[in-house]
Amino acid sequence: MANSIAKGLLLSAALMLLAACNDANTRPQIDIEGKTMGTFYSVKVSGTLTESKQQLQQEIDALLEQANDDISTYRPDSVLSRFNQNTTAEPQPIPRGMADIILTAQRIGRDTGGAMDITVGPLVNLWGFGPDKRAVKVPSQQQIDAARQHIGLQHLKLLSDSRGEWLQKDLPEMYVDLSTLGEGYGVDQLVRLMARKGITNYLVSVGGAVSSRGVNGQNKPWRVAIQKPTDRENAVQALVDLQGYGISTAGSYRNYFEQDGQRYSHVIDPVTGRPITHKLVSVTVIAPTALEADGWDTGLMVLGTEKALKLAEEKGLAVYLISKTDDGFSAVMTPQFKAFLVQ
Ligand code: FAD
């Protein structure tokens, strides 16, 4: 189970499994796990399959491979990497799925006042959190100002015509980074695969994005746990039943580097060009799709506790925020999130 512990979320099906192994009315449960997007995926299905586990895993791997070929910045020949390498203002053809991600990202970008900004790639790479993940020291203000010249959602246009979808930039060195949305997109692809196969009892995850519906092998609703924002594994902060929704957590306590006693996380504020420094350390969002949840979690993370809570209440979002205090952590959630809480 260790590999399903992802960035702030851990699948507590194992807790349920241990708790109810001797329960009489169990159902067959099929567990499929693999690697994708530099992290792990897990597909759990309870009930009987109409095909072999191997066949289902082949379809899962093919779906996630396609997602990587479309939107990975870690593959130099992906559709997204070719768009980033192109320095003209010529519209580039993109697949439908990628257009849906960009559309969602542009809307959440506007709603968060630019806090969630998929054009932030030059800054992510400058701080060493991009594909070439080089060991970095804190960049100079001059380097940050130079990188900021190449970002801004207003310079990215999504076009659509009878031939399909196109992406256009008017900054030659614009570098779009979809890392904050990829895992949610991968989960939604798996949810659509379950629906196509008529599978109604499943729990699917890619990295820290999860969606679940129905019951597990013990005939009990799947439970997804939100981890305490510590490096200690398995510290559970809260348990939810997703009822078919998607969930994602953004955290600033896992992916960071330290220099002169200061932590620099991978969540970048596009306005300052620097990693966030406020006390909000974990944002969990539940939304109708995992893509939506994955987009909002980073945008709210950048805003900080007060602004994130105010925006979440205005938009009626299901949000759970954990902030660092002098003697530990404090948590606050919106009423919409409470509806999913089981503990
Ligand atoms: P989240 O908290 O969801 O998002 C943080 C990430 O979003 C940052 O790492 C940065 O990239 C970006 N970001 C930072 N600030 C902002 C902002 N203000 N607005 C918008 N975005 C921001 N990693 C590997 O190591 N190897 C791989 O082969 C690999 N392949 C990948 C393939 C795909 C298709 C995708 C989508 C990602 C891949 N990754 C890979 C990256 C990895 O999976 C994670 O996406 C990345 O580490 C961020 O993980 P997270 O979910 O914790 O970040």
TrEMBL record:
It holds the Pfam family ApbE. GO terms for molecular function: transferase activity. It comes from the Bacteria. Transmembrane segments: none annotated. Its main location: membrane. Its cofactor is Mg(2+). It is found in: Cell inner membrane. Residues 1-19 form the signal peptide. Its EC number is 2.7.1.180. It catalyses: L-threonyl-[protein] + FAD = FMN-L-threonyl-[protein] + AMP + H(+). It is a lipid-anchor. Keywords: Cell inner membrane, Cell membrane, Coiled coil, FAD, Flavoprotein, Lipoprotein, Magnesium, Membrane, Metal-binding, Signal, Transferase. It is an enzyme of class 2 (transferase). Residues 46-73 form a coiled coil. PANTHER family: FAD:PROTEIN FMN TRANSFERASE, THIAMINE BIOSYNTHESIS LIPOPROTEIN APBE. Belongs to the ApbE family. Flavin transferase that catalyzes the transfer of the FMN moiety of FAD and its covalent binding to the hydroxyl group of a threonine residue in a target flavoprotein. This is FAD:protein FMN transferase. It comes from Serratia silvae. The gene is apbE.
